[in-house]
Every structure is written in structure tokens, then in C-alpha cells.
Amino acid sequence: MNAIFSFLFIVSALIMLFIDPAGFLSALVEGAGKSASLCIALLGTYAVWLGLMRVWEDSGVSAGVSRLLKPLSRKLFKTDDEQTLTAISMNLSANLLGLSGASTPYGIKAAQLLDKSEHAEYSSAMFFVLNATSIQLIPTSIIGVRTALKSAAPADIVLPTLLTTAFSTLLGVALTALFLSPRRAVQKRGNFLKKREAGSR
Amino acid sequence: MNYIFALIVPVIFLASFAYASFKKVKVYDSFCQGVKAAPPLILSIFPYIAAVMMLTKLFEVSGLQARFETLIAPVFNFLGVPEEISPLILMKPLSGGGSIAVLTDILEKYGVDSYIARCACVAYGASDTIFYIGAVYFAGLKRKKLTAALVISVFSYLCSILLCCLLCKVM
Predict the structure, then answer these.
(1) How far is CA A109 from CA A172, B110, B132, B133, in A?
(2) Neighbours of B130 (CB within 10 A)
(3) pLDDT per residue as tens digits for the range B2-34
(4) Which domain holds residue A40?
């Protein structure tokens, strides 16, 4: 990101020198101003959903969701550690709500715990893919932006988003399970050893 | 159909608050505690959104964006993806704040309810910031064999973009 940012910035600035040096500062200020109003809109969205998430936490809904997600995550991540599974579940619930900012602290914790687990390589890969392709039930940030821009139907994109994100997640999980599953890795190593033995003979 | 989707969010809130009251949770206190977490979160992403928005504005007025789009258009057209959302597709795996900045730009430029805008919204939601997650979640860990996972994630992301543009056409 750093390389891309400086490269694009320097090239754009160089071009501006020739075509419109006076417009340089006003472009920057205009961009910064727009980011401020965007953040205000996002602040509203986050306030609403983080408030709701806290109510869920205090009334035991989050714990219930974690419990529901646990059998699935146990199978997906091949780990039995309670602490790890809780961190994963909290991370996934925040992702489901489209609050990727709120899911980060749990995600970092889960990644650290997974690193120490039995099938660390596989579990970390699975966790990474699941987060990177991030399944979302309600794309709250997008609805927030669309509402701020006065869309006629801000929630119009919920269904296609749900289908798309479910597709990318399922595809990612399937590919990970197919290529990186520990059982398969063991098998591969076994085949390799057999081949080597056969070769040395 | 749209009415049913409009119902989802109010029903979630209603059920949650009713259940919390039933569980004798101090709903007002609890809700406010949650809201308290919003400003620090926004403050932590503001610098990134601001920096990228300044850059995109510069990128646009310098005429680089137009040149970039004509350059990349054949590839996207071939795949059935509108070239107008190409900056978003390239930005999304790198930065969440940056991509929401680019998304807002697209929505303002082409109209928030246009096909391109809807396509951009769905593409934005299709996946998360792949490289950013790789850097932040797995920073400082010993095992860093994430290459395969990275390839799988990017591949799934690109496939879902194709699906998204198809879905936005029919829905």
C-alpha cells in the first residue's frame, strides 16, 4: 500500500505541475473534506450497530451465537481450545454484521491463538480465507453510505451482496479444505516418502 | 420482496431489545456503552480514508484516472465487468478505508441507484481487505506460510466479482 500510495501520488503531482499547479492544493483539501463527511456518516452507522452488538453481548445473545457457531468452527479449524473458538466466533459475528473494523481485535487474538494450535498452518490458512472473503449478512457500512447519499432504496443491494459474499466464502473454504487440509498434507508427504524410497532402491 | 427485506432490520432490533429487557439487561446503559466504542473506531480509520480520498481526487483531476480506465477497459469489458468500478476492485484488497472512499466517489459520480453504483456496492461487499488482513492479523507470527491461502482468497474474490456483475444485471 505504501509503495502504491507514493507512486500514484508522485505521478499525479508531477502531472499537476504541468497542467494545473493551482488546482493541486484545492484537490487535496476537497478530498480531505469529503473524507470528513464520509466519516461522520460512518460514525452514525457504527454507533447504531455497535450499540446493538453491546446489547447482544450483555443479554447473552453473542454467547449463544458463539455456541451455535462453535461446532462448525471446531470442524473448520480443527481445534478444541475454548478460548480460540470464542475469539473466532466473536470475530465471525462482527463480520456477519459487516463491521470489519469491530472484528479486527478479535481477529488478531484468534490468529495469535491459532498460531499455537495443533494444525496451525491449516487453521491459520482457513481463518485467513474466511476473513479475507468475509461473509456478510447485512452490509451495514454500504447501507450507511447509500443512505447518506440519499439512495431511493439503500437496502436494495442486500440480496445480491449476500449471494456474492456467500459464493466467495464457500469457494474459498472449499479450495482451502481441498488443497490445505492436514490429512491431505500427511498423505502427500507419505506418497513423497514412498516415491523417494522407490527411487533410492 | 423489497418490503420483506425492509422488515429484517427493524425486526432484529425489536427482538433484541425485547429479549434484553426480558433478561433484565439495562438496555439504555448497555446500548450507550456500545455506542461509546464507535468514535475511537472511526478515528482509527479516518487517517486512511482521508489520505486515500486526497489521492483519488488528485488522481482524478490530473487525468490519470481517465487514462488508467481506458487502459484497463478491454480486460474488464471482456469479463463483463464495467470498467468504471475498476479502481474499487483494485483498491478493495488493499485498504478498507481507501475502498470505501473510492466507493463513495463512484456512487456520487454515476448516481447512487445506477447499475454501476449497485455493481460497485455489491463488489465492495463481496470480500474483505485481503492483503490488509494478512498484514494485520498475522503480523509478527512465526508461521507465515499464507501464500496458498492468499492465492485462494484472491481467486475467490475475482470469481465473486464476475458473479456480482451478473447478479446486478438481473436483479
Answers:
(1) 22, 40, 16, 13
(2) 23
(3) 676 677 778 889 999 999 999 999 999 999 998
(4) 2-200
| Number of structural domains in chain A | 1
The helix (run of H) or strand (run of E) holding residue B160 is helix B147-170
Grid coordinates belonging to A110 = 484468534
Radius of gyration for the alpha carbons in chain A, expressed in angstroms and rounded:
23
CB contact under 8 A, B143 and A115: yes
* Range list of H helices, chain A: 2-19, 23-59, 61-77, 82-96, 100-115, 120-132, 140-148, 158-180, 182-200
Q: What is the pLDDT of residues A130-188, one digit of tens each?
A: 888 877 777 888 888 888 888 888 877 888 888 888 889 999 999 988 888 776 555 55
Place of cell 455497535: A50
Q: Which residues of B touch A32 (CB under 8 A)?
A: 50, 53-54
Q: How far is B77 from chain A (nearest CA, A)?
A: 20
pTM here?
0.75
Chain-centre distance of CA A47, in angstroms?
Answer: 20
| Complex confidence, ipTM | 0.74
Closest in B44, B137, B141 to A107, CB measured: B137
**Contact (Cβ atoms closer than 8 angstroms) between residue A197 and residue B155:** no
Q: Are A124 and B141 inside 8 Å of each other by CB?
A: yes
